[in-house]
Amino acid sequence: MTTRRTHSPEFKARVAMEAISGRKTLQEIAADHAIHPIQVSQWKKQLLESASDLFGKGRKDKERGDHQTREAELFQEIGKLKMELEWLKKSLSCSTAHELRRLVDQNHPQLSVRRQCELLGLPKSTLYYKPVPVRAETLRIMARIDAWYLDDPASGSRRMVDYLAAEGIKVGRDQVRNLMRRTGLRALYPKPRTTIAGDPSERFPCHVDLEKIHAPDDAWATDISYIPLRKGFLYLVAIVDLYSRHILSWKLSNSLDTDFCLLSLEMALGDGRKPRIIH
After folding, report:
1. CA dist., res. 146 & res. 258, Å (int)
2. Cα(202)–Cα(72) distance, rounded to whole angstroms?
3. Is 0.70 surpassed by the pTM of this model?
4. CA-to-CA distance for 133 and 96, rounded, in angstroms?
5. Burial level of 60, CB count in 10 A (0-12/13-18/19+)?
6. N or C terminus: fewer CB in 10 A for the chain?
């Protein structure tokens, strides 16, 4: 028989502060502390609702609040450092393997070669890899495939094999398909019609007439989307002016609630702007 886990108030506060910092998704926080994401969301909500009570208590509660604030600042700093590290890895991932290999210092006194490869996101095996040049015969076949594709863009790998065979070039379909993929060539043909409109009674037309928008603040548009990450996702809300296409405000949140949406709206209305329509 398994016993139910209990958590101390300090542990709940630390987890809630980490969720409020917004540096991690709820799924990442839950995985780090071996708890459920719903529990993290509930603790975050409880902390936000009871935050105002901290100012009405005595000195002891004030010291505790200062300690929690300092702890939250440390968590924010840790989250910022982790975010910068992830950004660095993401930026370096756009570089080629050749450029990343040049950054490895095999004589570094503190960082081993393995650790440098891990920080750069570079497999250690590729550090000693020497690329094999493409054979001249393969380049000649690729040139002929490109020439035939310009003449007949609807030709696929099967027809391309026949074209090459007519020129005396004997090559299999698998090799032709691989070469076409390497050069980014795809046969052009009608695709299946996958978008079918529903019943007219189920359609909801847009009542905003774009032709009647002649000045800024005539109509705003807002929408919520999500940004997938390696562990979980973040929610994004944005408000756009339909006339100027200017993004008035935007906010990110690791939980789907109304607080960050209202905060984004308050930011857009902060300059005294009053839209005629918010769509």
Report:
1. 54
2. 48
3. no
4. 17
5. exposed
6. N
**DSSP of 219-249:** -EEEEEEEEE-SSSEEEEEEEEETTT--EEE
Structure-model confidence comparison of residues 60 and 126, the more confident one: 126
Q: Which residue has the tokens 């002891």?
A: 60
For residues 62 and 59, what is the distance between their CA atoms, to the nearest angstrom? 5
CATH number of the domain located at residue range(s) 214-279 in this protein? 3.30.420.10
3-class DSSP assignment, residue 58: coil
pLDDT in tens, 10-65: 888 888 888 888 778 888 888 888 888 888 888 888 888 776 666 655 555 666 66
| Contact yes or no for 266/257 (Cβ under 8 A) | no
Per-residue model confidence as pLDDT tens digits over 217-258: 888 889 888 787 766 678 899 999 988 888 899 998 888 788
Residue 25 dihedral angles phi and psi, to the nearest 5° = -80, 165
Length of the chain: 279
